[in-house]
Amino acid sequence: MHIPDGYLGPQTYLPAWAVMAPLWSWASARLKRTLSVRRLPMMALAAAFAFVVMMFNVPLPGGTSGHAVGSVLVAVLLGPWAAVVAVSLALAVQALLFGDGGITALAANCFTMAVVMPFAGWWTYRLLAGASSAASRRRYAAAAAGGYVGVNVAALATGALLGIQPLIARDPSGRPLYCPFGLSVAVPAMAVSHLLVVGFVEAAVTALALAYLTRTEPGLTLAAAAQEPTSRALKRFALAVAVLALLSPLGLVLAARFGGGTAWGEWSADRLSKLVGYLPSGFQRLSSLWRAPLPGYGPLAAQGASTTVQAVWYAISAVVGVGAVAAVVLVLRRLFTRRERDDRAA
Amino acid sequence: MTALPEWLRPGARPSGGVSPRPAAHRLLRRTLGAMGRSLALLVREDDGPNAGALRAADPRAKLLAAVGLIVVATFLRGMLPLAVCLGLTLALSVAARVPGRRLLPVLIAVPLASAALMLPATLNVVSGGSPLLVLWRTAGGALGPWRLPEIVAITGDGLLVAGRMVLRTTACAALALLLAATTRPQQLLGGLRSLGVPQAFVMVLAMAERYLAVLLRSAQELHLARLARSVAAIGVRREEAWAAAGVGAVFRRTRALADEVTLAMVSRGFTGEVRLLRPARWQRKDWLLMAVAAAVGAALLILDRRLA
């Protein structure tokens, strides 16, 4: 996932530095509050640890092997802000001393592997682990899920960074100047390998290392988790989801602005018959089976309306959708915790 | 006197049910090899009298010059300026006596990996342009809304795009290597102060580099002990559990070391504030290095814009 120099144009890596600089200073200020005198040695050692984790090769079924990034493990053990600093420092050492990952691309690499990855993994872990006890299966499963989600979201971000290069930087004849593969190639290439292979390595290392530490040194691993109550982590997660929901019409607005069409494979029956020239009979029969309450993410009356009205309906649909999913998850969570309580009582 | 049993004789090979399976050890040996190489880079002997002139230059000047030239390389668009940049870097590397065993892997691995990644970009289906060499003629037609291309061919545009990427990644990697190979790790990280990196980060980076060697050695010992004790493969699941336990063991060592280091620092008067030694003054040759790097960077940029 390390992007080397030359793949990202200045239009991408300079904003990445601008985004990372305040994040680094914020992260180190937070650590100063919580760790005080211990901060510097702890961060130095944690950075060295993050580096060494990447050197452990884990075999995979089929004779190949891979290595974990370890950001989620560091986040679970020391907290997400410590992971931001520790993994960034490890990446800086890799780039400067070992030539692994570019120097100009360092901020972009830190953004994906030292910010996106630990936070995505940490939130997943906190949400699923809840208030379960340190040595419970649920906590290990939450760590595995955190590792899997974290590395996949980071891979998606890396694919997106590479995929936007041909859109934003071309020479006068229209040839791409940097990574020539567009989003339709870079994102699937990163996503498939991580969804099918790398994600499981990260999940296994995160969960098994946590299990090993919980068994051999009880009371050590929950130190970071105790710093932040679940409700606060949940609130932040909810805030992030709300921001994303409000940003959801962006795709619609951008498509209208740049003359894009519907997402590939998501055509309505009308659109499909126009594209292909005829409508398969099965498709016709099935398409009338279910009438969505908000077809096309808005009421029928808003179908021909201006982009602004459609965008508002889009955001409302996103909020309704997120609410529905959240309700299902909360019900499942309640069921899970009850079963665990019964297990403990038994 | 009893004769030595067969298996204790010198040169005896284990026989019977278990035999050493090199395949089971390949992964361990590969990991050990990578760790050994990393350690060798970190714990380097002092430079001998043969060390080139670049080694003596101030690390801050070298860092600024190298990072500046890497940034210039990411702005270059033409093949010629990129090739000049790569050529100059290689010439300088040879002049600075960068050892071949460090230079060659970068010169072979980076362009090869980059070229392999860029292979699809040479085709008309990715980069467009007029075909130079037709690889495959299809019947054409359409797959749903997708029009299949009638030919798959290597194009001039594609070759240019791929060539530019290979040249640029190699030039950047060679510049980064020149910097890393002519500067000791501690000095290189210390030089980051000149790029505006805050003191605390520089100090932590320098400490991280020092303890990285300690933790790497722990991990290396774990792997060596495992290699010495294993006679056959143990299966993917147990192998995974072993690696994770290794990571956990290294983390325990990390915690213990952090506590010890903190106590050692506090006992020597550390209160949480960072104080570094006042860095040496820049000398004339350091300014000269900066001026030459700036001139080369500007010349490359001007050449690039002229050719565009």
Choose one word for the global shape of chain B: extended
Overall structural class of chain B, as computed from helix and strand content, comes to mainly alpha
Number of helices of chain B: 11
Cα end-to-end separation of chain B: 89 Å
Describe the protein:
The complex is a heterodimer of chains A (346) and B (308). Chain A is mainly α. Chain A has two domains: 10-227, Arp2/3 complex 21 kDa subunit ARPC3 (Orthogonal Bundle), CATH 1.10.1760; 254-345, no CATH class. Chain A contains 14 helices and two strands. In chain A, helix 3 (71-78) crosses helix 4 (80-98) and helix 3 packs across helix 6 (137-163). Mean pLDDT of chain A is 78; it is low at 223-227. Chain B has 308 residues and is mainly α. Chain B folds into two domains: 57-184 and 282-308, no CATH class; 198-270. Chain B has helices at residues 22-42, 53-56, 59-75, 79-95, 100-118, 124-127, 156-182, 185-190, 199-229, 236-267, 284-307, and strands at 131-137, 142-143, 146-147, 151-155. In chain B, the strands form two sheets. In chain B, strands 1-4 form a two-stranded antiparallel sheet. In chain B, a hairpin with a 2-residue loop joins strand 2 and strand 3. The radius of gyration of chain B is 27 Å and the shape is extended. The mean pLDDT of chain B is 83. At the A-B interface, helix 1, helix 2, strand 1, helix 4 and helix 8 of A face helix 1, helix 3, helix 5, helix 7 and helix 8 of B.
